[in-house]
Amino acid sequence: MPIDPYILLLLGTVGLAALLPARGTGADIASGASTAAVALLFFLYGARLSTREVLDGLKHWRLHVTVLACTFVVFPVLGLAARGLVPVFLTDPLYQGLLFLTLVPSTIQSSIAFTSIARGNVPAAICAGSFSSLVGIVATPLLAATLLGGSGGGFSADSVVKIVLQLLAPFVAGQLLRRWIGSFVARHRKALGLVDRGSILLVVYTAFSAGVVQGVWHQVSPARLGGLLAVEAVLLAVMLLLTWYGAKALRFGREDRIAIQFAGSKKSLAAGLPMASVLFGAHASLAVLPLMLFHQMQLMVCAVIAKRRSHDPAEDVTAPEGSGRPGSEVGAGTRSG
Questions:
Q1: Is 326 helix (H, G, I), strand (E, B) or coil?
Q2: pLDDT tens across 162-198, in order?
Q3: Calpha distance 261→237 (Å, rounded)
Q4: Contact 252/322 with Cβ under 8 angstroms?
Q5: Cα angle vertex 301, ends 130, 152, to 5°?
Q6: Which end of the chain, N or C, is less surrounded by CB atoms within 10 Å?
């Protein structure tokens, strides 16, 4: 099973926060730096996303509506159903983190990568991930306001306003300035990618430092972590099956089904961590734990599925399906895994 090196960095950051948590003035500085880094992160997201790509992607609206429904409807419904697992498998704080996990948008980079490996519809995966991230800036805090209420520690209506201002305003600014800075961002994509990852590490350090200082980690036992992993494994399996066979029932072609499966079954660590730090405050360390575990699990499982799908027989292109792309069911479901 592949281990994402970035996960090792995240775990190292958690270890650093456990040994040397930010306190007092240091915590204030780390919090301010984290806020600035997240604002920069979403500014760069806005500068990267081409308006033309968005308009072109709207032509394949059935696929995008399907992915958005999986991300912001089916996932939250499953999260609400998991409430029945408290307190046998999950503690209430872990359940709040699990429910928050189901509310965050889909990934972009890994959805594209796995769709490409599996020989799926890569342009659709790009647009679907981008649309999900954009919608999530507004949808995630609103869903959290509705479903989490006041149970999310530092969560409040003010948090919703704060997250929209901290994430949406920089994103809009990036879109407005894209005409002048878009080429610079494209040329330095690799270097600016370090800003993405560095800002997330800073958010993790700040959140887990606050948790260590307040002693929230004493609330989690190895048995509870095992229960959380089992619940998340079932959640991922259900979403992978629903996205594949649901897209098949909707008569999408093989390439589109692959894009729907990988974009509709995954959750974004990059988008979820900054939101959790705003919504949950000092309780963010427990809130992001389910998301961090799910992120690594989805990478490992989807890497295996993508490799298997890359060996699928080519579809017969003589019979069109309802997705607007040619294809038939020949060989498409033989390795649904």
A1: strand
A2: 767 777 788 788 888 988 988 888 888 777 777 777 8
A3: 11
A4: yes
A5: 60
A6: N
